[in-house]
């Protein structure tokens, strides 16, 4: 196995809230190989965005970050991101307006991004900016480059941000819920634009999402997060077909089936809600909602360990008993 | 077939000169779910608001349980409102931040000058699967899924016949979503509630709805049984 492009080891991100330490990411490890698409899935509060920000070297103010983040073997944790940011790693946020300035044209902003990392003439930079817009499917790119962000639709703005992230041909792009605010038809276009730009530049992608169908369609590997930890990871196909962590199984089971069953309108559902990071259970964080929980689950937090197919890892004391048909595992009635 | 519970005919909604809803017609029977789908900005929410008599239409008719709602004054609408209730997307935004959960649920009844009977709020909380100990909390002390259940309990307080659900689960975490949908299904089966269901997620629509109306630029361009909905209906289909 070649050295991974990105290796994150034992990442902890601790915030301060109301005088308390809030452990938001608790010992997360994962790797991304060259040209690979790795999806980071989990619900709000699971720590996905904090992970992205820590890896990108821009944690929120006051956060304590520990662990290791290596890009091609070089440690970035505690080091300067100069020369990394924008050039080797780039970011696509959920809301384009957080990175696009309203007072400059889209073309000027992408041109400036080019010139911030390379000594090129204005003209050369401009033509690369236009080419980048063209690559994400913006028609008549040279003319549209003269527009301001607010003159673009939401989907076009998101594509412009992708163009800006990709223009310097980074090795790794981290996209945090890049399509959550968009409707499904536009979402599909934006994801296609992202895939096209990735193909053209050879960048690897960390795709943060809570939509398992996007994972199934776009990712090679998946990391499932729950309460600040990875509960399962591995190649998408075996993880979806035969999950080894009950939480993954519950998420997959609660998706509406592809075939509509005329009689059965109930979806298997996971009772309860994710724990608050300030009130984590002592053992497995999923235990209060887990249909397989036993006494030792409440006492001891399970570690991520090989389970199932090669490359598949799960953090569950009972992973060897899985997969059981997940539809039988979770209740199919309204929770009382 | 019995009379529809809701019959909307040639509904028109305008914002200034812009026509957001253009002669839309549909009906919903008791116990039925009609989904309204279509791209962002096509007029789904505007249709929902006019159906709820929260926005005055520029034309057309909204008949609910035999009453023509368009043209009624708020005073005349007030006794009818408990029978058709909205549940909106943002579970936090739709609750008043300073009102305790117990009072938020009782609020629509109080507005009707029908203060809740002893134990009625607790019964409603149990119906939607909320622990009654949560009654003293404020909305920000609940999870998104719990807040959405509060929204549903509130809507149920006046014994509605129709709920208008505008993206009721889109803001919820995936592991919580199925539970809220199951609750809505259970309420429909127990009480014969009718739903107008707006949702971006076509797989959920196909699972949850009986019929689907596809909107585009203010018009309904297609209506069909939910099971015949293709999951790419929004990309292709009639323009
Ligand atoms: N208060 C308002 N004033 C002016 N225009 C409005 C107003 N509300 C909505 N519109 C416009 O009316 C049209 C229909 O809007 P509506 O909110 O009904 O769409 P929608 O189908 O619910 O979209 P989405 O899927 O994004 O929620 C859009 O063009 C919108 O910009
Ligand atoms: S460790 Fe126990 S509680 Fe946690 S997921 Fe596995 S079986 Fe469930
Ligand atoms: Mg809407």
UniProtKB/TrEMBL annotation, chain A:
Keywords: ATP-binding, Cell membrane, Membrane, Nucleotide-binding, Transport. SMART domains: AAA. GO terms for cellular component: plasma membrane. GO terms for molecular function: ATP binding; ATP hydrolysis activity. It is found in: Cell membrane. It is a peripheral membrane protein. It comes from the Bacteria. CDD domains: ABC_NikE_OppD_transporters. PROSITE patterns: ABC_TRANSPORTER_1, ABC_TRANSPORTER_2. GO terms for biological process: peptide transport. Belongs to the ABC transporter superfamily. This is Peptide ABC transporter, ATP-binding protein.
UniProtKB/TrEMBL annotation, chain B:
Gene3D superfamilies: P-loop containing nucleotide triphosphate hydrolases (3.40.50.300). One of its GO terms (biological process) is transmembrane transport. It comes from the Bacteria. The keyword Nucleotide-binding applies. GO terms for molecular function: ATP binding; ATP hydrolysis activity. SUPFAM superfamilies: P-loop containing nucleoside triphosphate hydrolases. Residues 6-239 form the ABC transporter domain. Keywords: ATP-binding, Nucleotide-binding, Transport. PANTHER family: D,D-DIPEPTIDE TRANSPORT ATP-BINDING PROTEIN DDPF-RELATED, TRANSPORT ATP-BINDING PROTEIN. Belongs to the ABC transporter superfamily. This is Oligopeptide/dipeptide ABC transporter, ATP-binding protein. It comes from Streptomyces himastatinicus ATCC 53653. The lineage of its organism: Bacteria, Bacillati, Actinomycetota, Actinomycetes, Kitasatosporales.
